[in-house]
Amino acid sequence: MEAVILEGKRPDGVEVINGRQFMEDAKGNLVPLGNVKPEDKLQDEMVRKVMEFARDLSAQIARFRGHTVADLGSFDALLAQQYGGKIGGAKGNRTYQTFDACMKVVVQVSDLISFGPQLQIAKGLIDECIIDWSEGSRDEIRALVMRAFNTEKEGQINKSDLFMLLRLDIDDERWTRAMEAIRSSITVTGSKEYVRFYERATPKDEWHAVTIDLAKV
User: Fold this and answer.
1) Any domain includes 153
2) 41/51 Cα distance (integer angstroms)
3) Measured between alpha carbons, how far is residue 117 from residues 111, 130, 149, 182, 185 in Å?
4) How far is CA 203 from its chain centroid?
5) In this predicted structure, what is the pLDDT of residue 3?
6) Residue 135 pLDDT
7) Residue 153: pLDDT over 70
8) In what order do the strands lie in the sheet with 8-9?
9) Is 67's pLDDT higher than 80?
10) Would residue 130 count as lying in a domain?
């Protein structure tokens, strides 16, 4: 008995037209299945298999996050109803833990910030300072400035290094004005909420993160 070949594109990437099997290449050309290299077929099959698992896992994580946010929100609402208050500080950071203090869920809220045109004024003033400093003087600050403004990529800012510049105490009127310009350039545009999970064997042990981020597993 001959196998029945269905017309149309199948989940395995093979497209059947008039009983003939093809695979579409990156340019949109239909290549007869027999002309596709075995290693290309194998790679295609492997990627499709991995992607199927990835899509399922992504959907599962999305459902998990939705349930987690709903559970935490319900608990917060219960506390607010019972005591007229809520867990956490002004920025919205919150920590929930089990009675034995061996598991906890931490909610951290980070501000999303952008930088205004004052930042370019600050960069100009900082450049003046660096040019005037003697060669070999304050090399560590020069390196920090280079990283902060990432001169290899135009317009890119390293926020952590930029904020480190604000912590430096440098007796130069131009540097002081530059730091004022940096502070004036900062605008909070919103916030993003992160949920993290931790556990430990006993209350005396160190906390260990329960990792969900695929890059850190």
Assistant:
1) yes
2) 15
3) 20, 21, 14, 9, 7
4) 31
5) 46
6) 66
7) no
8) 8-9, 14-17, 20-24, 30-32
9) yes
10) yes
| Mean pLDDT across 67-85 | 85
Give the domain extent around 168: 116-177
Q: What is the dihedral of CA 190, 191, 192, 194, to 10 degrees?
A: 180
| Residue 65 to residue 86: CA distance in whole angstroms | 21
Is the residue at 87 inside a domain? no
Three-class DSSP category at 104: strand
With beta carbons less than 8 A apart as the criterion, state whether 65 and 57 touch.
no
pLDDT at 138 over 80: no
Q: Can you tell me whether residue 152 is helix, strand or coil?
A: coil
Whole-angstrom distance, CA of residue 158 vs CA of residue 190: 19
87: pLDDT confidence band, cut at 50, 70 and 90?
A: confident
Q: What does pTM read for this prediction?
A: 0.62
Asked if 181 and 118 count as a contact pair (C-beta separation under 8 A), the reply is: yes
The region that residue 89 occupies, defined by phi over 0 for left and psi between -120 and 50 for alpha, beta otherwise, is: beta
111: which strand partners?
Answer: 191
Structural domain count, the chain: 2
Q: Is-contact 178 130, C-beta < 8 A?
A: no
What's the mean pLDDT when you consider all of the chain? 85
Nearest to 164 by CA among 185, 148, 142, 187: 148
Assess if residue 86 is contained within a domain.
no
Higher pLDDT, 187 or 92: 187
Q: How far is CA 79 from CA 102, 124, 168, in A?
A: 22, 52, 43
Which of 216, 217, 212, 215 lies closest to 60 in space, CA to CA? 212
